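lol ok so funny story. i was supposed to be doing the assay writeup but got distracted and ended up predicting the structure for this chain instead. priorities right. anyway since i did it might as well share w the group, maybe its usefull for someone
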Amino acid sequence: MKRNLSNSSYEEYMKDQLMLLSSKFAIKSYKRADLDNWSFFEKGKDIRVQIQWKKNSVHEFVVEKEFWYMKNTNKEDRQYMRMLADPKISMFKNALFKKEKK
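and the output, tada:
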């Protein structure tokens, strides 16, 4: 389902953009993280986000919960969110197209 991306949250934007690339992508968010791997993770404040391809984890990152779910209603917030999201999306897009060429 394509949403109006003008004020979508980081979560909605990532899900929509990855779904445009392939329906095999999924995003899971977790309230907890292994502190050995994510020492800066703050329970209750942060979310660990896992991007999956066919139910296998291919990328993980930590983001503040408020920023992940917040609607981006002003131009500066949208620009900042997309500055963080677009490189991740491009990484997956490039990986898909390289795989198709082989």
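The mean pLDDT is 89. The helical segments are 10-21, 65-69, 75-101.
back to the writeup now i swear
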